[in-house]
Design goal:
- The protein has about 400 residues and is of the alpha+beta class.
- It has three domains: about 150 residues, DNA methylase specificity domains (Adenine-n6-DNA-methyltransferase TaqI, Chain A, domain 2); about 70 residues; about 170 residues, Alpha-Beta Complex (Adenine-n6-DNA-methyltransferase TaqI, Chain A, domain 2), CATH 3.90.220.
- It is about 35% helix and about 20% strand.
- α5 packs antiparallel against α10 and α6 runs antiparallel to α10.
- The radius of gyration is 25 Å and the shape is elongated.
- The two termini are about 10 Å apart.
- The model has no long low-confidence stretch (mean pLDDT about 90).
Length: about 400
Amino acid sequence: MKAVRLSDLISDARSGFASGKRDPTGVFQVRMNNVTRGGGWDLANKRYVPLEERSLDRYSLARGDVLFNATNSPELIGKTALVAHLDEPTVFSNHFLRLRTDATRLDPRYLARWLQLQFDRGLFSAISQRWVNQASVPRDRLLTLLVPLPSLDAQQRVARLLDVADQARLKREKSFQLIELLPAVLFREMFGTSEPAEGTWPVAPLSACVGGVEGGRSLAGVDEQDDKARFRVLRVSAVTSNEFRPGESRPAPSAYQPPPAHFVRQGDLLFSRANTSTLVGAVALVNETPENLLLPDKLWRIVWRDPDEATPEFVWQLLQSPYARRAISRRATGTSGSMKNISAEKLLSISVIHPPHALRTEFAAKYRGVQALMAGARAHLDHLDALFASLQHRAFAGEL
């Protein structure tokens, strides 16, 4: 299959404009948060900006335009979205390049899919210019890329095929997201809002079931490519989503010999004692973990007062409740507004509902059933992702 420079296949490649102003009566401006990393659209938060009519002609979007995110963080640089439909006049920010194809040679859906594949492969991060927390792909550098170019009919067929496959994958992903909500729904059905003031359940300090906490050590950073590192230390981000993410870790010094208490174990309930005001107190349940992961100093392992009476699944959901989040936030202290810390004493003193052990055990058993359902759904989703990646590769290699 022949490959052609992108510059020879487009009629226009224009950057948007910056605007720090808002105008409810103005025009919708697409910003970085409106394009997902998967190439979709997120219109939950729209910003409207003032705009002169002559500028609308210059910066407006039309169906078939391809928006390339030319400036963003290094991990998000290059995400791409196709403008498939418009409900209102729309413009775009200076973080994007608007690409308009020569419709006689390049199908815009095909281009959007090809650019998104390069993003998934990390190409744009690799060729970007970088600053402290930002990266940019220069317009001229983008336009030198070689695009595999079958016939227009073949391009359209590839785009249709990938659209259908992607829709199936996204539907499964949405189903998985709904399954992820089940533990919180189940907790609310069994225990209500967890507000002690409601008087539904007995109230006791958290120390009634939690005997204490254990933390790890703060270790010097190590080059990610250090192949001598035997252990990895969790980052705080491993729990900030309230789901355990073992991949959020960094190498420990190769000579470091950790004590047994610093290893992360299956069944641990981890708590973030230090983070931003909104994330301090994030908590995650370790359903499974590699054997070489270590606790940092800013993540605690919850230690149970009576291991035979422990119900970590219940406490995991309890500490995510709005009441517990407010209580933790009020007790967290710090000189910086961006970083707060809570002491073990203050955490254990929080008054929480204390339902009978039998009910807490029942919740734990039901959660484990949901966990098995999530594992099956995740395996299916991973399989679909792998199939889609293979399909993309074959499509742009001319094998379909």
